[in-house]
Amino acid sequence: MEEVDKILIHALKQVGTEVSEETGSVKQFSSELIVEAVVRCVRVIDSGLGGALPTSLPPGMSARFRVGMSLAQACQDIGYKGEIGYQTFLYSNEPEIRSLLMFLVEKLPRESAETSDQPQGKSAVLQRAIAAAIKAQLSVPWLPPNCRLPLHSETQSPGALHRFHVQPLSLPHCSPGKKQLKEVKDYHRDILPPVTAQPSHHASVVASILEQHTAELSAAQEWDNEWNSQGLLSRLKPQEYRSRKLTRLRKRIQEQLRSAAQPSPESALGGPRSTCDLSELLQAFRGSAPSDHILTKGSHFTHTQKFTFTQTETSASIPFVHQSDGDVQLRQQEEQLSLQQQLQQLCSEVDQLTADMKHMTVTHAQVLDELKQRELGNSENVEKMQVKKKTIDLLPDSDDNLEKLKALVEASAKRVVNLASQWEKHRAPLIDEHRRLKEICSKQDLESSKKLSEIKSLHDKIRVSTEEAKKKEETYKQLVTELENLPQDASRLAYTQRILEIVSNIKKQKEEITKILSDTKDLQKEINSLTGKLDRTFAVTDELVFKDAKKDESVRKSYKYLAALHENCNQLIQTIEYTGTILREIRDLEEQIETENGSKTVANLERILSDYKAIRQENSALAAKVREG
Amino acid sequence: MELCESVQRGLQQLADPSVFSPSSYRELLEVCYRSLLSSQADPGALDQPELKQVEQISLKQSHTAATTFILEAVKQNADKSTISSCLEELTFSAERIDMFYNAHQKHKKELEHLLASIGRCPRHINDVTWRLQYHVKNNQVDKVNEPFYCISLNTENEGSSEDINFTCTVEQLQDLVGKLKDAAKSVEKASQM
C-alpha cells in the first residue's frame, strides 16, 4: 500500500495539490486535503465540471455537507462506480479514499505527462535559458549608481550603446576558378586595410562583419534553393544558368522601362517633355558647380556674340568721352533706337532665315526622296527594256526560236525530273538517318531526364538526411541539457524499479504459496492414509480382541479399554479440529476489528455527533434570526 | 553553426600548417581579438613580424574569416563541442582547436559585452522625488480644489543623468503605478518558465 500511496501523492502533487512532505500515506489525509485533491483532479479531468467546485471546505456545516454532495455527484458523473457520498469526504475512511483517488489519478489525462517526457523544442530551451538569465538578474539587488561594482555594471547601467549601423566591407576574394586582374590583386595585397579597420566608425565593425556574413550565407542558401528547384531542370551549367537569368532579367527591366516611358495618347506631349526634364536635371546636376566653365567653353556663336558686344561697348565708350551731356544723351538715345531697330531687324532676319532653312531642309529631303524613287523607276524601266529588246531580237526567226525554246523547256523539265529522282534517292537515306538521330536524341532525352530525376531525388535525399542529422543532433543536445537540468530524483526510474521488485516479490510469494499448498496436500494425503490405517488396524484388533474376549475375563476388560481409548481419541481429534476452526474465526474477527479500526468509525462517529450538534446550533441560530426578523 | 563559403575558405587556410606556422597562427588569433576589442581601428593590425611570411591576400582572408567566426560563435553562444566540431570539419588540428578555444574563453565576456552594446535602451530610472500640490483656482475657474502630484524621475543613460518632470492627477498616478506593477509582474512571470 505504501508504494501505491507514494504514486498517488506524486500524481496529486503534479496536479497541483499541496501535499506536505510529512504525509506519506493516504491514511494521513485530512478531509480538507482530500477535498482539495479530488477537486483538483476533477478540474484537470473535466474543467467544466470542476470549475464550480471550491478547493477548500467552507466553515459552515451545512455548506460542507452541500460541498460533499456536489463532489460525490461530480465523481459519479466522471464515472466512479464505487460507493460515494458526502460521508466519503467528510468522514473519510482509508480504503474508500484510496480507491477513489486511484480512480481519479487513472482518469487524469495522459498527454500532460507525455509532453513532459518529450524533448522540448529549441525555442523552449532558449526560453528557459532566458528565464534563468532574468531570474539571475532579478536576484541581484538594485544598487544606486555610486555603489555599483563592475559586476553590476553589466546589467544595471546601460553603458555606451550604439546602433546596428552597417557599412559595406570589401573582402579580398580569390576563388581558384576566377582570374583576377593583376591591379586588383595588387590592391588587395598592398593597400586594402584589414576588415576591422575598414568601417569609418570602429563601433560598426561588429555589425558590418555580422551583416556581411549573414548576407553571404543567405545568398548562398537562396542560390542553393533555386538551383535545386529550377536550375537542375534547365539542364544548364551553373554559369550558363546564371548568365541566362541575367539576360532575362535585363530584358524584363528594359521592357518595364520601355512600357513606362512610352507616352500614353493623351500625354503625347508630356513624354518628350519628361525626358527633356530628365536631361535638364542631369545637366543641372552636372553643371551646378562648374557652370561658368561650361560657358567659357561655349559654342562659336557665343564667342562671336561676346566679341560683337565688347566691340560695340568699346565703340560706344570712345565718343562718350568727347561730347557734351545733352548731345551725348540724344545721340545715345538715337543710337540706342537705331541699334534696337537693327537688333530687331537682325532678329527677324535670323528667324526668317532659320524658318527658310528649315523649309529648305525639308524640301531637300523631299527632293532626295523623289530622286530615289525616280532612280528606282528608272532601273525598272531599264530592265523592262532589256527584256523587250531580247524578245524583239528573237522575233525575226520565230519558228526556229520557238523550237529552240521548246527544246530548252523540255530539257529543263527532264533535268528537273532527273533532279527530283536523284533527290528522292538521296532523301530516303537522309530521312532514315534523321529518324534514327531523332530516336537517339529522344532516348538520350529520356535518359537525361531520368538521370535528372535521379539527381533530384538524390539531392532531396541528401537534404532530408542532412536535416534529419541536424535535427537529431539538436535533439541530442537538448536532451543532454535537459538531462543536466533534470532534478536528480528520477521518479519514473525508481517507480519502474519498484514495480519490478514488487513483481518479483509477488512471484516469490506465489512460489511459496504453491509450495505450501503442495505441503498441505501431502499432509492431507498422509492424514487420510493414517486414518485409513487406523480404521483398519482398529477393526482388526477389535475383531481379534472380541474373539478372545469371550474366553478370557481380562481380555474382555482390555477390549472395553480399547473401545474407550478409541472413543477418547476420536473425541480428542474432534476437539483439536474444533479449536482450529475457532482459532481461524478469531483471526477473522481480529482482522475485521482492524479494518473497522482503520475506518476510524469511533472518531467519525464522534465527528458526526459534533457536526450534528453544530448543525442543530446553526439551525437554532437561524430560527432565532427568523424569529427576530 | 553555419558558415558561408568565403569564411570556410579563410578558415581552411588558417588551418593549413603550410600557410600559417604555429607562431603565426597564434599571432593571428591575438590580432583578431585585439582588432575586435580595441577601441580604435588599427589599419596596421596585420603588420606583425610573425605574420610577415604569410602571403598578404590569404592573411587578410583568414583574418576576415577568423573574426567572423569568432563573432558568430559569441553570437550563438556556442559551447566547446560546437566550436570544436565546426573547426574539425574545417581540418583544424586538435592542438589548434584547443588554442582557439582557450583564446575564445579568455575573451568571451568582453566580446559578449561588445555584442550587447549594439542596440538601444531606454533611460534607467534611478530615483523618484515627488510633491503633492493642491490646485486651488485658476483664471477661468474660481474653485478647482484638486490635488495633483509633481513627480520628478531621475534617470540615467550611458552615465549621464537627467530629470524627467511631470505632473499628474491621482488617477493618472494610480494608472502609472498599476502599469509599473504589471511590468514587474510580467518580468517575474518571464523568469518562471
From TrEMBL, chain A:
Coiled coil: 455-526
UniProt keywords, alphabetically: Coiled coil
A Pfam family recorded for this sequence: CCDC22_N
A Gene Ontology molecular function term of the record: cullin family protein binding
Residues in CCDC22 coiled-coil domain copies: 128-598
Domain CCDC22 N-terminal stretches: 1-109
Single biological process term from Gene Ontology: positive regulation of ubiquitin-dependent protein catabolic process
Family: Belongs to the CCDC22 family.
Name of this chain's protein: Coiled-coil domain-containing protein 22
Native organism: Eleginops maclovinus
Biological classification of the source: Eukaryota, Metazoa, Chordata, Craniata, Vertebrata
From TrEMBL, chain B:
InterPro entries (alphabetical): COMM, COMMD3
Pfam family, one: COMM_domain
UniProt cross-references to PROSITE patterns, sorted A to Z: COMM (PS51269)
A GO biological process held by the record: sodium ion transport
Residue stretches making up the COMM domain: 124-191
Family (UniProt): Belongs to the COMM domain-containing protein 3 family.
Protein name: COMM domain-containing protein 3
Originating species: Eleginops maclovinus (Patagonian blennie)
